[in-house]
Structures are given as structure tokens and as C-alpha cells.
Design goal:
Blueprint (H helix, E strand, L loop, with lengths): L1 H25 L7 E4 L10 E2 L8 E3 L4 E6 L3 E7 L6 H4 L8 H7 L2 E6 L5 E5 L3 E5 L4 E2 L1 E4 L1 E2 L2 E2 L3 E6 L6 E5 L9 H6 L5 E7 L4 E9 L2 E6 L5 E6 L4 E6 L8 E6 L6 E3 L5 E7 L6 E7 L5 E6 L12 E5 L2 E5 L5 E6 H4 L3
Parallel strand pairs: 5-9
Antiparallel strand pairs: 1-27, 2-3, 3-4, 4-5, 6-7, 7-8, 8-10, 11-12, 13-14, 14-15, 15-16, 17-18, 18-19, 19-20, 21-22, 22-23, 23-24, 25-26, 26-27
């Protein structure tokens, strides 16, 4: 019996030692956030793009510029939309909340590269633009569709197979500087549009959307996903097949802005819940049927940020954007748990 008692004691000590020393190393540690600082006086990185050589991120910021991250220099000027933009007047100004500044300086939001390395740009106040791989002043492509002005050009994606540009007009009644009023009134006058670079024609694919934000085309070009930051949904628009030109609600989310495709053919987006304090930010990875494959918390430098606009996986990292941040967040995808 003494031998059995000694054995039990030894086992108890071994288990306790395991729990004390082995378990902490298995507990996931908080991810390490890196902040990539934007040019002085600016902020509001709405969306991200990377060129075919892996350069970037490129992002759209509050004073009307599109900037490119170039280590070790940081963000440098790449492109702009407004013909009236003047660096002396515009640099450091906030066009997000001031429509007068926006009309002079521009305020790009959604951006995406085509397979030809042209960068397409949704300027909130001015419409759809494109700029070549060397950057500089962009060329306006459209400012209206089917007789109605594009008042709030928002999210954008390019189909790499067809070259078609899909983008959203968030509201027929409100511009970016009045986005809060659009949200409070439950505006549902948004549109989904398609620009054909071969013909130069623009078509309205869907109406009655409630604050359409981001757009992401599926890898097989058969559908695209749209976020509604007012309506609080992710919707699926079918491009081909028996359900072509129809739309379906996949998922309810809160304050979802941009949405991005992943290399694996899935999608990522951010969700923010303002109704609770502290504000909760989540990053979601979903498939084309709306199934949530990962749902992780975003914290660190974003704990005091009102809401997020972008969560995008590129390479080993996740890039995070917010209209209320003066930086781009970068965190390892594995450490965050989103991959």
C-alpha cells in the first residue's frame, strides 16, 4: 500500500508540475500589433490594395491622397483624383467630414488593381477614377449612372478575369460628410454598379441597398459579396448561372464597411458594435455562402477607435483600417487567428 501511495503522490506532483509550467506556454498570447504611421495630419485608411509584385499596401486617406507604403521610408504619395487638388491647401486636411474640402481635394475610398496594374479608385465626392501603375493624377471615368449622379462612391473591386469594375454608390441622398445622418435615417437608396473598361459604359445592377460599402468578386467570377453598413448585412449578388442578376442576404453584421477576398477564395471583413462599451471590434472570415469560418477580436491600438473599415489578409499579415485612425494596423494572421 505504501508503494501505491508513493506512486500516487509522484503522479500528483507530476500533474501539478505540468499544469504549472506546461500550460502557460500553450495559452495563446495576445497578437502583436504594428502601426504603420500615415503622413502628418492625415488618417482614415479606408481600403487596401497591393500590386502584382507585392508592393504596398496602397491606401486611401483623408486629405485626398492615395499613398503607398515603401519600407524603410513609410508612406509616400502615389496618386490623387481631384484636378483642383493643391498640396499646399490639401495636405493634412480632412475631406472625410468636409464636403467642400472633398470637392477640392478629393476623398478616395475603395481602391483595387486590375490585372493590367491600373488602379481603380472610388472617390466619395467625385466618382470613379483610374490611374496607371506609375501613379500621379487619376482620370475620371464616370460621375453618374443612368441619369443619376454618383453621390457617394464607396467600395470597389475588379474582376481579374473580365476586367469589369464593380463599385457602390452608398446613397442617392447623402454624401460622405453626412454619413451619420444616412445611418440614423436608415437610408436605403444605395446602388451596385458595373463599369466596363472595354466599352466605357456603366450599368446599375441593384438598387435599394442600405449603405452599400465594400464589394468583393468571387475567385470564379460567378458572384460578388456586398456589405451594407446601414442595413447591417452581407449580400450576395449572382453574376452567372440560373440566379444571375439576383441578390440574396447571407449574413447579419454590425457596421460592416469593406470586404476583401483572400488567396483561398474566402472573404474577410470587420464588424464593430457601438452599442456596447468598450466598443467591440471583430474580424470575420467567411465563405461564399455566408458561413463564418473565423471570428476573432481586434484590440490593441483599436480599443478606442469608433469602428473599423477594413480587414485584409495579404501574405502572412492582416492589414486593418479605420476612418478614425492615423495609422494602418498590421498583425500576423496566424497570431490573430484569422488565417
Amino acid at each position: 500500500m505504501a508503494g501505491i501511495s508513493s506512486l500516487r503522490s509522484a503522479m500528483t506532483i507530476a500533474i501539478a508540475a505540468f499544469l504549472l509550467f506546461a500550460m502557460p506556454s500553450a495559452i495563446a498570447q495576445p497578437p502583436t500589433y504594428e502601426t504603420l504611421t500615415l503622413p502628418p495630419g492625415t488618417g482614415g485608411p479606408k481600403a487596401f490594395a497591393f500590386n502584382l509584385l507585392g508592393g504596398g499596401p496602397y491606401t486611401s486617406i483623408s486629405d485626398g491622397r492615395i499613398v503607398k507604403y515603401v519600407p524603410p521610408f513609410g508612406f509616400i504619395d502615389f496618386a490623387y483624383t481631384a484636378q483642383t487638388r493643391n498640396k499646399t491647401f490639401c495636405d493634412g486636411r480632412n475631406a472625410t467630414g468636409d464636403a467642400t474640402v472633398g470637392l477640392i481635394c478629393g476623398r478616395p475610398l475603395g481602391i483595387a488593381f486590375s490585372s493590367l496594374q491600373d488602379l481603380y479608385i472610388c472617390d466619395a465626392y467625385l466618382g470613379l477614377y483610374v490611374v496607371g501603375p506609375l501613379g500621379g493624377q487619376a482620370t475620371r471615368l464616370v460621375s453618374s449612372a443612368e441619369g443619376s449622379r454618383i453621390r457617394f462612391c464607396n467600395g470597389l473591386d475588379v474582376d481579374p478575369k473580365t476586367g469589369s469594375v464593380y463599385f457602390t454608390d452608398a446613397s442617392a441622398n447623402y454624401v460622405l460628410s453626412n454619413a451619420t445622418q444616412a445611418y440614423l435615417t436608415g437610408d436605403s437608396t444605395g446602388r451596385l454598379l458595373r463599369f466596363d473598361p472595354k466599352t466605357g459604359q456603366v450599368a446599375v445592377l441593384a438598387r435599394g441597398l442600405s449603405g452599400p460599402g465594400g464589394v468583393a468578386v468571387a475567385a470564379d467570377s460567378s458572384y460578388l459579396l456586398i456589405t451594407e453598413f446601414i442595413g447591417g448585412t452581407v449580400k450576395k449578388y449572382f453574376l452567372t448561372g440560373p440566379r444571375a442578376n439576383t441578390i440574396q442576404t447571407l449574413l447579419n453584421v454590425s457596421l460592416a464597411s469593406s470586404i476583401s477576398g483572400t488567396p483561398a477564395g474566402e472573404f474577410t471583413l470587420a464588424e464593430s458594435r457601438e452599442s456596447v462599451r468598450p466598443i467591440i471590434h471583430r474580424a470575420l472570415r467567411i465563405n461564399g455562402n455566408g458561413m463564418v469560418l473565423a471570428n476573432v477580436s481586434i484590440g490593441g491600438p483599436y480599443n478606442n477607435v469608433t469602428f473599423l473599415t477594413a480587414v485584409q489578409i495579404y501574405g502572412p499579415s492582416v492589414y486593418i483600417g479605420s476612418l478614425y485612425a492615423a495609422f494602418v494596423g498590421r498583425v500576423p494572421a496566424v497570431g490573430l487567428g484569422l488565417s
